[in-house]
Specification:
This protein is mostly beta strands and 115 residues long. The chain has no helices and 11 strands. The strands form 2 sheets. Strands 2, 4, 5, 6, 9, 10 and 11 form a 7-stranded mixed beta sheet that branches. Strands 1-3-8-7 form a 4-stranded antiparallel beta sheet, with no helix packed on it. The chain starts with a strand and ends with a strand.
Length: 115
């Protein structure tokens, strides 16, 4: 099993930045992929971006490409989501996801962007 703990959410004005963290513990050596998802009120959960645990390759949804960046600190088994040029439509609960043979989820952290 893997446990995921997110932090770093909050309230920010449009155009501002936030960095989310996701600390993984447990069977981190079995992680194949880390990802960030988000879910806005009344909407389905959507993929924000992914990071391959073995290669470090990343993928981003078109809606965040060029503004968001996923990185990791292997020593801390922590993945980050750097969010720049935030827009009100980025307001959502952000979830960290780890894929092994099954998916594990963090508890979510609220990001609110005011106009």
């Amino acid at each position: 099993q893997v446990q995921l703990v997110e932090s770093g959410g909050g309230l920010v004005q449009a155009g501002g930045s936030l960095r989310l963290s996701c600390a993984a513990s447990g069977r981190t050596f079995s992680i194949g992929r880390m990802a960030w998802f988000r879910q806005a009120p009344g909407k389905e959960r959507e993929l924000v971006g992914t990071l391959s645990w073995s290669t470090g390759n990343t993928y981003y949804a078109e809606s965040v490409k060029g503004r968001f960046a996923i990185s990791r600190d292997n020593a801390k088994s922590t993945v980050y989501l750097q969010m720049n040029s935030l827009k009100p439509e980025d307001t959502a609960v952000y979830y960290c996801n780890a894929r092994l043979t099954t998916d594990y989820w963090g508890q979510g952290t609220q990001v609110t962007v005011s106009s």
